[in-house]
Amino acid sequence: MEAVPRMPMIWLDLKEAGEFPFNSAVKKSAVNVPRDFEGCSTLRKYFGQLHYLQSRIPMGAEQEAAVPVAWTEIFSGKTVTHEDIKYEQAAILYNLGALHSMLGAMDKRVAEECAAGAFTYLRDHFPHSYSVDMSHQILNLNINLMLGQAQECLLEKSMLDNRKSFLVARISAQVVDYYKEACRALENSETASLLGKIQKDWKKLVQMKIYYFAAVAHLHMGKQAEEQQKFGERVIYFQSALDKLNEAIKLAKGQPETVQEALRFTMDVIGGKYNSAKKDNDFIYHEAVPALDTLQSVKGAPLVKALPVNPTDPAVTGPDIFAKLVPMAAHEASSLYSEEKAKLLRDVMAKIEAKNEVLDQFMDSMQLDPDNVDNLDMYNHIPPILMEKCAALSVRPDTVKNLVQSMQVLSGVFTDVEASLKEIRDLIEEDEAQERKLQELLGKVPAAQGSPPASPGLAEVSRECSKYLELHEKASFTNTELHKAMNLHIGNLRLLSGPLEQVRATLPSPSLTEDDKQVLQNLKRILAKVQEMKDQRMSLEQQLREMIQKDDITSSLVTTDRSEMKKLFEEQLKKYDQIKVYLEQNLAAQENVLKALTDANVKYAAVRKALAEVEHKWNTTVQTLVASYEAYEDLMKKSQEGKDFYTDLEAKATKLLEKARAACEAAEATRQQLLEKELKKQPPPRPTAPKPALQKKPLELEPSTGLDPAEMPPLA
């Protein structure tokens, strides 16, 4: 594709301001900004000036100069008020991200790094209890949505610039990764309850995009395989792209026409690529097509980042209008301490992310799902789809009987038709033989010249008989196939009509030894340890973030000499030592846990293979039984069609048989008349030399020999 057909993007509404006793002109310009980049600039300046203000005047929660700040909550429309200037900053920062999301969703598709940056800064530096739309869950959702849409913009540009296929595939794969994170947030019950009615719309769009951009990624992996002349890989990548696009199309029901057009365009491209690749490989290259899971997965390339927000950057905020109110030293020291905290967080997060990446890659390679390690529970129950078929047959107890009777009736009519046609054919052959004998006797047609011409009546019967025999022969093949199909499915239908215990007993189930069960239990235990380690790591990370967010030493900085600042910082940062130790222990434990998991997985390999084989047999058996049920109506329909056909043919054959008998009788009468007439023309016997009496051998006399008609046997 020369470009990705554009998909709609999600943009966020701006919060509406309420009461805040601040200069009315400043307030008005900050809450009624134009929906353009000038509006973004105004919001950044106002945010920066609020930062300067709150660092000098005690306007925070429960401080002396705190005043009520009111903003409308996006999802409920309710007005939420806090006596905290940080609430005003948080709302402005939210609107900055929301406005950037609006601009990013426009036709020019400006990248949305700033939107993600604003929400990231809001998540990391402000309380999450102000309002629902600024909760930790919603902010994480917004960050991943904005990063995904920014990466989507980059993907479009990369394709327009004709970047290398592998790079485009990685960029598209990263779009999928961001949207998967967003989808996980949308599937969270708490997040869903916060979002309200828009949650379903967002989730539906994001799920569709996950499959769509996964298809784009595999399309370009296929193009890379094509460039490398790996024609088997090309086929499987294009096949995978086609499968994922079909899933996106299913999920796109109800989406606007622009989405449908984009999907149709992409289907034309991918479908054409797949058909061409498969045809070339089938007829030219003949390369083996590998399984998709044997190929290296496409790792995303995160090329967009949440740009940091700096509230003290004069290039963004303009000059500090409160510079004369309080000493800048305290503010500068606070900023330096914030940077120390940020550095600590960055260092810890770098270690966590490195370990998480190793863990994710390891778990992906293992392909172990803790919830589906053995699937033993499914063998204890008849699957719902099979229960549905059994229930349907239980209210139709004569199903098998009706099918058998229908096929028996069909066989009976078939046999009758075949017998009638055979009798007609035998009559015609017998008539031809008698006609030939008569002609030979009369000396008109030598035996070597073949069959004499039939009478007009029998000629018509012969033509009709040939036509019916041809129809019968064609229908006979269909009838045979129908009986084969019935024999194939009749046993399964009897099984489904019987007791459920018999159905359950027919389904395969694994036979595990005690050692096998021990292997499974050990693997599950270690997988639970892995999950425990991940949960603990996330909890410790969250605790660290909350500690850093709440850590405000401004009051201490005011009374501390500049020369003592470094020492104060070191003392204050010691409060993080304990949680850092816990995190280090958690990270160090990963190596041992993964080693134990590796050993357990080696022992699990044989059990896994056996379980996979049983599961395959189980699925095949279920599918076969379901197919037999679904074939019943078709068999009955075709059986009835066969009965109707042969009943009609039987009636025609019966009439033709009567016609054949009548024609044969008429032909025989005609032959007798001809024979008597011919014999009367013969000269009488000579009286002087009487001949001995002739033996009665029909049709063996020479034509010139005289014979009394009374001595001639009949030709029947």
From TrEMBL:
Q: Name one GO biological process term.
A: protein transport to vacuole involved in ubiquitin-dependent protein catabolic process via the multivesicular body sorting pathway
Localization (cell) = Cytoplasm; Endosome
Residue stretches in coiled coil: 417-444, 523-550
Q: What is its main location?
A: cytoplasm
Example GO CC term: the record gives: endosome
Stretches assigned to the BRO1 domain: 27-359
By its UniProt entry, which InterPro entries does this protein fall under? Answer: ALIX_V_dom, BRO1_dom, BRO1_sf
Enumerate the UniProt keywords alphabetically: Coiled coil, Cytoplasm, Endosome
Q: Name one Pfam family in it.
A: ALIX_LYPXL_bnd
Task: Please name the SMART domains in this protein's record.
Answer: BRO1
Lyase as a keyword? no
Region of interest called Disordered, as start-end residue ranges on this chain: 674-716
What protein does this entry describe? PTN23 phosphatase
Name of the gene encoding the protein in the UniProt record: Ptpn23
